[in-house]
Each structure stands twice: as C-alpha cells, then as structure tokens.
Amino acid sequence: LSAVHYTGVATAPFRQEQHRRAVPPGQEETVTMTVAYAEYGPHIGDQDALKLTVAGAVEETGQVVAKELRVRLHTPELTLTLLAPAVVGEETPVQVLFQNPLPQPLRGATLRMEGAGISCPKPLPI
C-alpha cells in the first residue's frame, strides 16, 4: 500500500503484508485488509490517492498474477445556505457548514469565499 500524488508519482510503500494460502480446486479465498486513517494519514497530501498492489504466485507452476487498485480519497463537502434574500449592493449573510470526518481535530484551516462583486476575498481563519 502506498500513496500516489496527483502527478501520478507513487511514494514508497508504507504497508506490506504477505499471506500464504492453499486454495482447493474451484474455490476462492478472501483476504481482508483494513487501513486506519492513523496509518495512511501521514503519507498522503492534498489530492493524493492510495494505491494497493496485489501479486499472487502459484508455487506449483510459477505462474504470477498481479492487480493494482487506486483509491481516490473524497474530500468532505461544504454546505452553503443563504440566511436572507440576496439584494444587489447589500451584504448577504451566508452559513457555511463543514463536518470534520477525521478522528482528530483540524488546525490552521481557513475559509475563503469568492464570487461576483467580491474584489478582494480575505481568508477567514477557522
């Protein structure tokens, strides 16, 4: 398991597992892997994805099969609600709702709103 930057460059793997199974004819085997945020969080940045690479080998024949899966991490939504009618030339109150999906507090976040008629948006620390 490794991180992949938005440029497509993969980082060094931060987790590796090896499983050995005997699979009877006509049967299938499932291997489950759970990755907590505490494990992958330090390895990813903004717009990164996770890359899971799995390879299997048949001892008796030496045949190898491999598969790769990229998992794009979704960013939380911002919900915007007008709290009063919007009138040209007047201030309009807007409610912005954001829910932190992480198991740790977010620090140093800022909110910046842009739009028609806003000539110089100022970051609002949160």
Automatic annotation (TrEMBL):
<dbReference type="InterPro" id="IPR050779">
    <property type="entry name" value="Transglutaminase"/>
</dbReference>
<keyword id="KW-0808">Transferase</keyword>
<feature type="domain" description="Transglutaminase C-terminal">
    <location>
        <begin position="2"/>
        <end position="67"/>
    </location>
</feature>
<dbReference type="InterPro" id="IPR036238">
    <property type="entry name" value="Transglutaminase_C_sf"/>
</dbReference>
<dbReference type="InterPro" id="IPR008958">
    <property type="entry name" value="Transglutaminase_C"/>
</dbReference>
<dbReference type="Pfam" id="PF00927">
    <property type="entry name" value="Transglut_C"/>
</dbReference>
<dbReference type="InterPro" id="IPR013783">
    <property type="entry name" value="Ig-like_fold"/>
</dbReference>
<protein>
    <recommendedName>
        <fullName>protein-glutamine gamma-glutamyltransferase</fullName>
        <ecNumber>2.3.2.13</ecNumber>
    </recommendedName>
</protein>
<keyword id="KW-0012">Acyltransferase</keyword>
<dbReference type="GO" id="GO:0003810">
    <property type="term" value="F:protein-glutamine gamma-glutamyltransferase activity"/>
</dbReference>
